[in-house]
Amino acid sequence: MVRLDRTADLSLSRQLLDSLREAILTGRLQPGTRFPSTRVLSSELGISRNIALSVFKQLTSEGYLHGRVGSGTYVREDLPENFLIASRPTRGPGSITHAPRRVASQARAIVDSMSAYTDSIMNSSRPFHGGLPALDAFPYQLWMRLTAQVWRRLRPRDFAYGDSQGYRPLREAISEYLEANRGVRCTADQIIVVSGSQQGLDLAARVLLNPGDAVWVEDPGYIIARAALLNAGARLVPVPVDAEGLRVEIGLARAPRARMALVTPSHQLPLGMIMTLPRRMALLDWSRRVGAWVIEDDYNSEFRYGGPPLPSLQGVDVTQRVIYMGTFSKTLLPALRIGYLVVPPDLIRLFSVARRALDLHRPLVEQAVLAEFISEGHYARHLRRMRLLYEQRQRALVSAISDELKGIIEIAPAGAGMHLIGWLPPGSNDREAAECALQHDCVMRPLSWFSLECRLRPALVLGYAAFSEREIANGVRRLARALHETI
Amino acid sequence: MVRLDRTADLSLSRQLLDSLREAILTGRLQPGTRFPSTRVLSSELGISRNIALSVFKQLTSEGYLHGRVGSGTYVREDLPENFLIASRPTRGPGSITHAPRRVASQARAIVDSMSAYTDSIMNSSRPFHGGLPALDAFPYQLWMRLTAQVWRRLRPRDFAYGDSQGYRPLREAISEYLEANRGVRCTADQIIVVSGSQQGLDLAARVLLNPGDAVWVEDPGYIIARAALLNAGARLVPVPVDAEGLRVEIGLARAPRARMALVTPSHQLPLGMIMTLPRRMALLDWSRRVGAWVIEDDYNSEFRYGGPPLPSLQGVDVTQRVIYMGTFSKTLLPALRIGYLVVPPDLIRLFSVARRALDLHRPLVEQAVLAEFISEGHYARHLRRMRLLYEQRQRALVSAISDELKGIIEIAPAGAGMHLIGWLPPGSNDREAAECALQHDCVMRPLSWFSLECRLRPALVLGYAAFSEREIANGVRRLARALHETI
Questions:
Q1: CB of B234 less than 8 A from some CB of A
Q2: Mean pLDDT (whole number) for B56-83
Q3: Residues of B in contact with A276 (CB under 8 A)
């Protein structure tokens, strides 16, 4: 029943323990079976008596064995009757009732909402992934140096549980940056550091929504964000966009009493237009009248190539109805997983407690490094460099496409962002085009992936920020081969 | 209307832009107002005409101004009527309807569930915080060296969006560790890396529970964990514990069809007993029969001072009903925020997609450092060192208390864990005692904080792992002063 392997990594006592436990669990040693004495067992197995003793002691403390004074050691008889049955899955189904493996109904909906393309694209860094910054132009050396400084500077007590709103110096650096660059009106107290916009939205949805609440979402819009709303039990109300951004009047017609609107006013995702001032004002006016919340996802405002970016919606909202959301995934590195919310003063307590219920707080070290990176001016410098670089890369994409894909992809330069929309001929199928491109090692989302209800001209969403001019040129050549096959 | 400050940090064009925008938003510049020409404006303000031009252009692109060919620049008239009103909060309430600031009803419940003590204790590192490991004994130098190695080794493309289940080498290291040390049966595919047990539980609750589902929770038990269950809309069913752990028969009587049980079998939180084998088997048997899930929170199994820790519940569950949950917050540092779930094979896809909907994935670098730390054997070594250290510290606590608090606190050594229960005289008030201790710079939770319904003898939960013998001795002296005041 027991086989010991003297050449194995595992100690003899561990081997003995495991095999006796296994024998009891599988019923090979029946309840009530008397064990040989430790003296007999140890001589039979050729082990020291101490090993046998410690194993008996352990099995007794685990509840498998029972010692009777003067009469030896037995497998316990008072284990529940089903114990042995439960441990023998090989018995026929007649003997065991297996209840269904029920999960949350919402969980299936989430999986469905993250349909196709998500898996294959998410973790890739191939052209023309639309959500990636220039991984090749990040100042790794500098960041490492700051990291080493931070590790040296922090004291052991700093590594206890931390502030659920985020590391204070980081919150101060963020609020100063937002005030100066985005016209956001806030103090460090209003900042909640989160793990990217996805967690920010998840948090906002949980604090602000009851199951069944209607939420306006841009159509087309960012699919993965919707999963966070579905998680909170929200009912998504698709609201179309036009050249001025969200069509507020359609939202009003469809769900006038919605509880929330999720918008990307500075750079509509994916189409890239800027929400005009009249639309912004109409949205804020609605939110004030009905008591709705506006989530301003300012994911991409930093990259405008002509003039300063538009100030935020939050900055012109005097009734404190806007929750502003930003991320460093697009400006620095996705793998850092740092973003933030700016919440109205009366909601700070709710958000900070709810954030603790999510995952207590963000890891410390990279928050401290980032605080340093911003307050020493490296962040502003990096953004300036990236603006120039992305403008060049955008030009490279536009020119490669007019060289290689004339008549198939229609593309126009834009004054902002990290991707362009490459319009396909009407009547073509953008999902097929994207799948075919994937076969040619080009990774991108079809525009239709972003739509809930709206019917759009077929198009591909082409990211350029993360790729060198050479990678862009080569990628466009591969894409051309792919599209010549399908279109 | 416009005042420029030549000594300010802000550029002149930014000052002009801000003040004109402000004038329009507050109604001082009415819709339709004609602007002076850039030539006149620039000479009046003593600025270059280029500045005036760029500001006009920006305000036009933002939608505030409107240029008519040959007739100058005007404040736009097609702003929504409410625009100016919304921007003037100083007007009487009559003119604006302010809807109530409604939030999720659940959000208030969460705040309530995290009552008292949480804020004051959470972020502290003072004696006798019960949830902290030895921050002073962590190998910071070694960790920094591994961090530098990891930064050098990773390639730019590694910093794109990552695997939502967690960095693969870390998952492999964890599954090997669990197999060898905790009797957990799993592969790296079953591991989901999360941001500590709180996120693990939050994720499990969202994937497995529908609103209204009943969940057995240990009473007393870990309060903050409950917030994650409440978030998912669960109905908490308190189930008392005794010397053998969870009283399964009471759970069966109270909520036989519960959907989930949350247990700490290897070291009950906070009382410290080990769930006996018959109870484990009864729990698994119930879960199999009714189709319930068991969350095994194995938060503290590593610190047993006599003999190897008991193997996990997951390891003896052959019907794959157990979700195993572990954390590095207790074995390494809370500020790392790394934990993991082990999920049954048929739930991997649901958990991994739901985890993406939470916050995509964990930050990369510390996952890679931890993978290295475990696979190079540093983790096992650190745990061995900590076991010896914690045993010493526990002895120091017991001896200081018998010296200073005889007759007031009753305390007994235990074979496991990072805290002990200090029993107070029956009839005393443990909340008052803890608050009074706080005045003497001693941080701890009263045992009653952990209870939902159960009435327990008053006691204090005294952590010892994080404090040197000197800090423990000094802390106990302060605690003695505090308790001599109240008891």
A1: no
A2: 75
A3: 63
Neighboring chain B residues of A209 at a CB cutoff of 8 Å: 104
In 3D, which of A293, A233, A238 has the Cα closest to residue A261? A293
Over residues B207-225, mean pLDDT = 92
Distance of residue B480 Cα from the nearest chain A Cα, in angstroms: 24
Q: Report the gap between the CA of A407 and the closest CA in chain B (Å).
A: 31
Quote the pLDDT of residue A94. 38
Nearest in space to B387 (alpha carbons), one of B317, B283, B304: B304
Suggest the residue from B103, B209, B320 to mutate for an interface test with chain A (most A CBs closer than 10 A).
B103
Q: ipTM value of the model?
A: 0.84
Q: What is the pLDDT of residues B7-23, one digit of tens each?
A: 877 788 888 988 888 78
Strand residues in B43-136 grouped as ranges (E): 65-68, 72-75
What's the DSSP call for residue B416?
B
Q: Which residues pair with A294 in a beta bridge?
A: A261, A322
Contacts of A82 in chain B (CB under 8 A): 281, 285
In chain B, what residues touch A199 (CB-CB under 8 Å)?
358-359
Measure CB to CB from residue B350 to each of A25, A107, A159 and give the nearest one.
Answer: A107
CA A314 to chain centre: 24
**Do B58 and A308 lie within an 8 Å CB cutoff?**
yes
The angle at the Cα of A464, spanning A458 to A469, to the nearest 5 degrees, equals: 125
Do B52 and B42 meet the contact criterion of CB atoms below 8 Å apart?
Answer: yes
Shortest distance, CA A177 to any CA of chain B (angstroms): 13
Distance of residue B69 Cα from the nearest chain A Cα, in angstroms: 21
What strands, in cross-sheet order, belong to the sheet with B322-327? B191-194, B339-342, B322-327, B293-297, B260-263, B214-219, B235-242, B245-246
Q: How far is B46 from chain A (nearest CA, A)?
A: 22
Picking from B247, B323, B318, the residue whose alpha carbon sits closest to that of residue B282 is B247
List, for residues A78-89, the tens digit of each pLDDT value: 765 444 444 444
- % of chain A beyond a pLDDT of 90: 59
CA distance A127 to A470: 11
Per-residue pLDDT of B149-161, as tens digits, reads 999 999 999 999 9
- Which chain A residues contact residue B307 at CB under 8 A? 54, 57-58, 61
Look at residue B112 in the predicted model and tell me its pLDDT. 73
> Confidence band (pLDDT; 50, 70, 90) for B89?
very low
What confidence tens digit (pLDDT) does each residue in A250-278 have? 999 999 999 999 999 999 999 999 898 88
CA distance A486 to A483: 5
What is the Cα–Cα distance from B202 to B205, expressed in whole angstroms? 5
What distance in Å separates the CA atoms of residue A83 and residue A77, rounded to the nearest whole number?
11
Rg of chain A over Cα atoms, rounded to whole angstroms, equals: 30
Q: What angle do CA A412, A417, A421 make, to 5 degrees?
A: 40
For B137-164, give one letter per residue: b (16+ CB within 10 A) or e: bbebeebbebbbebbeeeeeebbbbbbb
Which residues between 132 and 151 in chain A have a beta carbon less than 8 angstroms from any beta carbon of chain B? 132, 135-136, 138, 140, 143-144, 147-148, 151
Per-residue pLDDT, averaged over B407-436, amounts to 94
Residues of chain B positioned with their CB less than 8 A from the CB of A380: none
DSSP string, A456-469: ---EEEEE-TTS-H
pTM of the model: 0.85
**What distance in Å separates the CA atoms of residue B396 and residue B393, rounded to the nearest whole number?**
5
The mean-pLDDT minimum among A355-369, B60-74, B347-361 falls in: B60-74
β-pairing verdict for A214-219 and A260-263: parallel
| CB-CB neighbors (< 8 A) of B114 in chain A | 353, 356-357
Average of per-residue pLDDT values in chain B: 88
Residue A223 phi/psi, 5-degree rounding, is -60, -45
Residue A91 has pLDDT above 60, yes or no: no
